[in-house]
Amino acid sequence: MPSWAYGNSGTRFRVFTQPGGPRNPFEKVSDAAEVHKYTGLANSIALHIPWDKVDSFAELKAHAEGLGLWLGTINSNTFQDEAYMLGSLAHSDPKVRQKAIDHHFECIDIMGETGSKDLKIWLADGTNYPGQDSLRKRQDYLGQSLAKIYERIGQDQRLVLEYKFFEPAFYHTDVPDWGTSLVQTLALGDRALVCLDTGHHAPNTNIEFIVMQLLRLGKLGSFDFNSRFYADDDLIVGAADPFQLFRIMYEVIQGGGLDEGSPVAFMLDQAHNVEAKIPAQIRSVLNVQEMTARALLVDNESLELAQMRGDIMAANDIFMDAFQTDVREELSQWRASRGLPADPMGAFRASGYAEKVSLDRVGGVQASWGA
Ligand code: PSV
Ligand code: MN
């Protein structure tokens, strides 16, 4: 789960507040623990630095562990400092690049304290106008900066490089696609992998193909799950297109991404601008579970036979049969058999947690996207 999903967020038009919003990383962790409590599926929370900087990460870790969570991926942030207006790791000024590299060193130090395994890098670097800067030089600078960061990470740690085709840069982005992330991480080494954010592709991109290819190459490090109707909407995963989520999970399963010891870290990266945040995270986790369960139902033996016969319609029927199977009742039973509530959304609503925190959290400033 992303810590930032619990704070207020919004668009450039307005960031709306919600009653009971967390005011610091400790309260974000407490909210995240609610999601795990009712789903049994989300036992880790990723932090964003500097948004989640605290005086003592040991204390934050103890707080998380006390609630049954561990502190997961550390996300760097080189997109909110004045110095980064024209880029960070790919900036043409070596002083700005060094500042961004130093920020990543700080993130690596924090990983040592939190016990985090992954350093996730997403860059806002890019240009708005043709000719604004040299595409080629920036790519070389990026490679050099990443190499310095990679050198610092521990043997049991990884660097995951996230791509995004546009925004905030509109003409070119320095890591726009999985190909660029792949070549940059291949140049670094085995502990550098690609992060696939499902919202970071042009409309109609076949994301499951990318999933298949990265798994095939052993280079899929992590997911940022969310869904989109138009741009990088960061909506609840599976809300816009459950069938796409099913197809992605099918390729994950086929490629060994769900196997014991799989290198794939499954994360949500969502912003709940107007909906209640904890229920939105519960719904997201359940959507992934549901589409995973359906994808596990594909009769692969019959599918392979149909594929070998060239029987297009039979193959498609087998695939669609699994997608169209309602697994909700069986998942309720699965939960009940583990001492979890059969209906996590209902159980959270009935718990009174939302009402309680809105009464308790008096004073202070609510955390929001950017703090
Ligand atoms: C960028 O759009 C992104 O997907 C990256 O993962 C950032 O760290 C995150 O969103 C911040 O909201
Ligand atoms: Mn992301």
Report what the structure shows.
- With 371 residues, the protein is an alpha/beta fold.
- It has a single domain, classed as Divalent-metal-dependent TIM barrel enzymes (TIM Barrel).
- 44% of the residues lie in helices and 11% in strands.
- A 7-stranded parallel beta sheet has the order 1-2-3-5-7-8-9.
- The relative contact order is 0.14.
- Bound molecules: alpha-D-psicofuranose (PSV) and manganese (II) ion (MN).
- Manganese (II) ion binds next to loops.
What is the fold's blueprint, element by element?
Layout: H1 25-39, E1 44-48, H2 57-66, E2 70-75, H3 94-114, E3 118-122, E4 126-127, H4 135-152, E5 158-162, E6 172-173, H5 178-188, E7 192-197, H6 207-216, E8 220-225, H7 242-254, E9 265-268, H8 277-296, H9 300-309, H10 312-323, H11 328-336, H12 344-351, H13 353-360
Parallel strand pairs: 1-2, 2-3, 3-5, 5-7, 7-8, 8-9
Antiparallel strand pairs: 4-6
Helix pairs in contact: 1-8, 1-12, 3-4, 6-7, 7-8, 9-10
Bound molecules: alpha-D-psicofuranose and manganese (II) ion.
Alpha-D-psicofuranose (PSV) binds next to loops.
